[in-house]
Amino acid sequence: MENTNIDNIQNDVELEAFLSDKTEDEMLDIFIEKMLIDKGYSELDEETKANFRNEIKEELIFRINEAIVASLPDDKLTELDELFKTDSATAEKINDIIERSGVDVSEPIQKTMMEFREVYLSAGAE
């Protein structure tokens, strides 16, 4: 993970501002790194942190995709279903359906990320 200033971020507003000009992949990497720091895992060895990062990223992407699909109107869900039934689904075709849906997916993405963060940070803190 490249060196960032995420260790100086104190709250969700600062985190959101910091992430605003990043690519999706950079944003997820930074978001996950901040969760690891906030969880107290910054002192773990790099291999263990890399494993955590990969597992967290995979689960977070899965949940984001679920939220995006859940936000689509029925007609676009039907189109999406047809792509998968005919084995013609590609990232480009899926993104096209999402874009043509008229749904602003930023809200479900942000909500999913923040809920994921809250659950992750509170796990084991009883």
Entry keywords:
single chain
Quantity of strands, as a count:
0
The percent range for strand residues is: under 5%
Largest sheet: none
Helical stretch tally: 6
| Order of SSEs | HHHHHH
The pLDDT mean sits at: 88
Shape: elongated
Supply the helix-strand structural class: mainly alpha
Radius of gyration equals 17 Å
- Given as residue ranges, the uncertain stretches (5+ residues, pLDDT < 50) are none
Helical percentage: 55-70%
CA-CA gap between termini: 30 Å
Question: What is the strand and helix layout of this fold?
Answer:
Elements: H1 12-19, H2 24-38, H3 46-71, H4 74-85, H5 91-100, H6 106-122
Helix pairs in contact: 2-3, 3-6, 4-5
Architecture overview:
The protein has 126 residues and is mainly alpha-helical. The protein is 70% helix and 0% strand. The mean pLDDT is 88.
Brief characterization of the structure:
With 126 residues, the protein is mainly alpha-helical. The chain is 70% helix and 0% strand.
